[in-house]
Each structure stands twice: as structure tokens, then as C-alpha cells.
Fold these 2 entries.
Entry 1:
Amino acid sequence: MDNLKIPATERSPDVDFDFAAGRLSLRGESYPEDASTVFGPIFAVLEPFLDNAENRDIRFDFELIYFNSSSAKALMNMFQMMENAAGRGVRLEVNWYFAPDDETMKEFGEDFAEDLKSVTFNLVATTPS
Amino acid sequence: MLAKDYREFKTILDTRGVIFSFSGYLSEGILYSLGDALRHKMALEDTDLTTIKKVFSVFIEQAQNIIRYSAEKLRGNIGKAVELSSGMVTIGTDRGKFFIVCANIILTEDVPRLRDRLQQLQRMDKDEIKAHYKEKLREPPEERSRGATIGLIEIARRASDPIEFDFDPIDEHQQFFCMKVSI
């Protein structure tokens, strides 16, 4: 499966999916008016990848600074997709990074984690630079 | 005369504590630029990160609601399809709090639905708003909504006080909608 690399823009995150290594990441900001412009291409490759990843170790890093409410909804869909895959035997570990003084991103991480039983979800405070 | 006129105009904005006010056709590009300027302004004044994020988030959700729902739109094709939505966004400070006000024209037929949603949010406390947000996050999107339901809850969640809002009838088909959020 081809890797997916999309550089960040002013209102969309950097996407780096290395499927061979099982390392995926989303970094930056996401606030397009229409979230499907950002998440459409992501779901198009993530779904078939997770469908065929049983017994593999997959790590997904989220280092998001800000996202709008329609992106939050898309992220929720993504976590539901990952939870289903983990239920089928994909070993999924999520790292949710947030700046230590950023309560909003920490709270979002906690909100998403609440629905996850099979995915390993780590809330990680980044060290101030 | 010219300078006097516009100085008076600016003085009105200044005395209301306005940081900036935009009125006219909003695009995603304008939204980005205004949001960027807003974040820089707050960071330069040592506003704490959580407050910066709350103000920015409310600004983005309000501006995107105008882009989606303003009844005052220009549509056309200038080599590419273009749709511009008219509205107003004003950000300022008053007695140590930030305020974000948005206004735009909406169709009278859409007023009851919007009023119901906003009144429902006004009645909720912080924990209820949070629970409501999570519930909506899990649901599939509503028809015709283009994401507004969750946007209004996000705004209510970041606000320090209940959302203030009002409608001013223009004619039988249209009303001027205004919403104010304090942080």
C-alpha cells in the first residue's frame, strides 16, 4: 500500500502515513470549513489499511494544536474506525500529544479516550521547548 | 470632513473596546488572516494559552457559521466557482473579558430552529453542555446542517457566560441575527 504524505497548509494538518512501518501521524491544525477536504483522502486510505492489518502493531501519533468542530467530528469517526479495527485484532496504540498548558487539547484527548476499549490511548504532555 | 468622519467611526469602535471588526463578504482566506492576527495580538499581550484557544475557537466557529448560513450570498464563476457570504464579526475586550460578536442575515423560516437550539444551550450548565457535545460528536451528521449543531455547542462550551442572541426582523422573509459570546 502506498504511503500517504500530505504537507500541512494554513488550515490543514501534516499527514504522514507510513503503512509499511505501521507509523501514522497527524500534526498541526485543522479548520477547513468543509472537513471532508482534509479527512476524505485520509479515510480513503486508512479504512482499507485497517481492514488488512490484523495482528500488526500500528502506532498513530496525534500532535494537534487546534481543530474546529467539524474536524472534531471527523476525528471521532476516525477513532470509532480504529476501535473497530482494534476489536478485530489490530494492535493499535495512539499517542495524543498536548502542550502542558493547553487544557482544551488535553480535554479533547480525554473525551476521545473515553470511548476506546481496545485501542491503547496515551495522553502525552509535550515538554515545553 | 473625511478624517473627522472616520475618526468618529473609529472612536465608537475604540470606546466599545473593539480589537477589530469585519463587515462584508467573508471567505476562508479572510477568516484565516483575521484569526492569525487575533492570535498574534493576544499572544503579544501575554494572554494565557487556554484563553487564546477559546477566543480563537469561538471566532472560527462563528465565522464559519456565517460562511455556511448567511442568507446574503454572492455566487458566480470567475474561472472557478466562487461563493461569498456576507456578515459581521467583531472582537474586543470589556471589563477584563473578551467578547466575540457575529451577525448575519438569515431566512425567517430558519429562525425558530436556531432560536430553539440557542435557548436549549442557554439552559444548560457546563457539564450538560459537555455531555451534549459528546453525544453530538458520536451521531452521524444531520441533513442540511453542514456541521452547525456541533459548532454552536463548541461555542457554548468555550463561553464563560451563557450565549446572548437576538433577531431583528428586516422584512417578512429575512431577519438580522446577532450573537455575543464572552470569555
Entry 2:
Amino acid sequence: MIRDAYDVIIVGAGPAGSMTARYAAEGGASVLLLEKDRDIGLPVRCAEAVGAKTLASYVELNPSWIAHQLSGVRFTSPNGITFDVMTDNLGYILNRRIFDQELGRKAAQAGATVLTRAYVCGLILRADQVCGVKVRFPDGEKEIAAKIVVGADGVESRVGRWAGMRTNFALKDFESCYQVMLGGVSLETNCIHCYFGHDVAPGGYAWVFPKGADVANVGLGIAADRSDGLNAKDYLDRFLEKNFPNASILACVAGGVPAAKPLKKIHGPGVMLVGDAAAHTNPLTGGGISNAIAAGKLCGEVAARCVKQGGWSEADLAVYTKEYDANWGNHQRNSYRLKEAVHHIKDETLNKAAHILADLPPEKRTMLDVFTTTLSHEPGILIDIMRSFLS
Amino acid sequence: MNPFKSKSERGKIHELRFLPERCDYCGCCVAVCPVDCIELEAAKLTVDYGACTLCGNCPQACPVGALVGVAA
């Protein structure tokens, strides 16, 4: 069933990997998509919120994987002041298990060969050019050749390291997260709810994302360098004790999110990185699904084009880094600077800002109004933000 | 800023302990390890203690306290 060689091998069948596989196959390349776990889509290491606009421009919406429609964001300040910012058609809470399987299926429909329980344990290198992967299957190891290897192997990407394209994330640019799916909660809102504060989630935020009438993904992320003896799970236990003391836990999961500057290069000789592996997550929000599917499409298209043109050297694949940067580089860099600024705003300043914003009439609470009102009353925030943009 | 900071971060802990019963196999430790000495297969985590520099990154990044740094 498995051949000895493919045009493109993709490591990891999350949204980034499956999109890459689909578009590489649609472009005419022979494609192998490998997943280390036994099921595509499991375990779900995700808070499952995604913006409506980007999603709709890359995939056909399917009610089977939309768990809940979102119509706004509710913020809670460190001292407990809450205000909503409503936006029509903001986004969705997905059912990632079904969503990921659907994207895998689309890759298969396009002609890619998809395989689970296939752990990639090394790269085949010839004079620095990546020429394939070493795969550990339940019944033994096998070397499979490829013109292009794509690392869609998540936050821990070893493909990126083996190929010398990235190193470890700095602790301050890494969000350590823990999440539970709660049942039996009463949520009277279609808002995603974000809580801020040094005691809630230092260097990050806590979230309550409604997944249905009485189910929610409740989790938090902390900047890894701020964990002074307490880990993400400790902070979440404290949060649940305070806000959902009687709820049932239907699932729990740990995970990490890159909150980093864009990598200088997401391509190398015969290799490309995509999704979390390439730090494609939004450094401010931690959101990664739409970035992953957008970059995955580009990555797959570039792979197919290069195979067709007969060149997959580092110079040939450079167009991938270039096009990614042209499309999303500035947005990612600005989000990173904003994250740096937000993480340095003191709790008292956030409390003051929330106090002012809570008085703003609901119809005036667009994101822009919130921003300008905050700045006009709390210019200190502007200084914090400016400082991070200048550094 | 101290130019030697990143080097002096080495050996921040005296010993690294892995508590498998707490591990969720999420890969945070792999993502922050500067020497790539942790391997994570689907539900199997292996630390190459010989290569580990005791930098203390993974205990800080681990969301569930499965990697514990014993203070120097």
C-alpha cells in the first residue's frame, strides 16, 4: 500500500497538514500524509474558537463540525468588571474532532494517501538536502523518499529542528495551557469570555468558550516564564474553584501555543514548515486554526508547483517564506508587539480601563471604540504599546 | 543586558524528574527544550538524561507538573 517514494510527504494531519496535503495533491503531486496518533482529530488540543471570515474563505462550512455560533466577546478585568463587545457573525466554536477528520478526508479525496499510527522518527538527509523520512509503524521502521517533506508536526516540531530551521521556543514566547470541557454549566451568552489578571493567568488569559447550551471549553494559558512554582493546571484549578465550583469535567487536555515572532525562514532544502510548527499561531490571541489552514493551502500549492517545475532546492522553495510573509508577516509581527505590550500592562491599569468601558453604551462598543476610549482615558496603555513597537 | 545570560541559564536545576502518571503527552517540554533531548511518540515520552543540560525550561513549560526540576 505504501510506496517507497512520493513527491511530497507531510508530517502531521492537523488542519495545516491536511490542507497542505489537499492542495499539493490537487496540484498534481503524489502525496503521503502521516499522523502519529491513531485517529486524525484526537486528542483535541484546542479551545476550538475560529473567526468566521477566514474560515469561510478557505473551507466550505459544514454544520456537522460547527458546535456553536459566536456573536461577541466578553471581557472580565482582574477585579471582576465585565463588559461585552458584540459583533455579528464573529465566528464559531468548532467540533475539532469532526473538523480535522473532514479536512483529512478532503485531502484523501484530492488523491493524497493518508495514514495514522505513523510516527516520523527522523529525516533522510543527503548533503543537507532533505530527501525523505524515517517512519516507525506499529510493525516496524521504513524509510520513504520524498522530493519535499513538510513539517506540520505541531508546536514541538522536530522536523523543523532536524532540518535546522528552528530551535526551541523561548519561555516568554510560549503559552503553557490547560483546558477542561465542562458540562452542566449554565451559559446565558453567545460570547467567548476572556478573563485577565496576574492572579488569573499571568502573561496570558483564561477563556470560557460556549460549545453548546450547557457545555463549555474552559481553559487558560500562562507565559511559561511566569510560572513561579504554579503550572497552568494549578491556575485553572483555582479558576474553576472560583467560577464553576459545581461543574462536571467531561474532558481535560494540556497543550502549548507558540506566541512568537514569525520565523525568519519556514523553508529549507527540500523542506517546509506549516501551522504551529512554523509558529503560525497569532501571538496575541493564541488562535491558530485559520492561520494554519491559510498557510497550509499556500504550502500545498507551492509544493505542487515546485514538483511540477522540477526544483525543490532551498532557493526553489524560498517563494513559500516570501509569499507567507507578504500575506501575513506584518499582521503577525504587529500582533507580537501588541502581545508584548499587553503582557506588561499592570492589573490596576486594566481595571481602570474596564471601569471606563463598562460605562460605554453597548452600541458604541465596537473594537475600535473600545480601543480609542481606552486610550483617551488611559494614555499609559498607549505608552506601553508604543514602547513595544519601538523595541 | 548580560550577554552571558543564556549560558548562565544552564544548570538552573540540580535534577530533572519525570512523573509519567501526570503526563498528557502534549509536547510543551519538547517545544522549549534547547537541546532536543525529549522524544514524544504518540503516548510515550523519553528523556535523554545524558544530553539534558538541566536548564529548567521544561518544568516551567509543563502545564501539569509532569516534569519537575529539583532545585540546585
